[in-house]
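To: structure desk
From: M.T.
Subject: fold request, one chain
Message: Could you run this one when you get a chance? Sequence is below, nothing fancy, just the single chain.
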Amino acid sequence: MTTAQIYRDLKADHDKQRAMLKSLGELRGDTNKRKKLFEEFRLELQSHAAAEEESLYAVMLGKPDLRDDARHSVAEHKEVDDLLGELMDLDFGSDEWESKFFHMRHRYEHHIEEEEEEMFPAADAVLDDKVEAEMADTYEERKPKELELARDNPPGGDERD
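Reply: Done. Structure tokens follow.
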């Protein structure tokens, strides 16, 4: 069985994000490199999460068998977004920043593992190929637009339209 494009797109983003988290975890101190990579990660994650919610989660919320998974994932997105906002307010070289970063990393890696191992297979079993293709189109259209929105809307707030 071939994996639908929507799940391949999301998994590719997750792999990129895992690599960014690993690199961030290896950096120490208040460095420009840490700040730059964190900002790249933040933009990647915010645009990914918003586009995922507008494509996959929007469809899942309309399916009773998938609704609880979608709600759970949206709540986890909000939790991680709040943690990103808290990290932006801390001294990047502080022990507090590192501690909060590792907490956020653990929460986010847990979230994407849940998506890949549980949620994507459950959605794939319920949704037909046409719907999955439409979700992929929506995701691919929305992600660049969400990246632009993320540049102007810091995490941890509710200012987004």
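Reply (cont.): Residues 5-24+31-152 form one domain. Let me know if you need anything else for the meeting.
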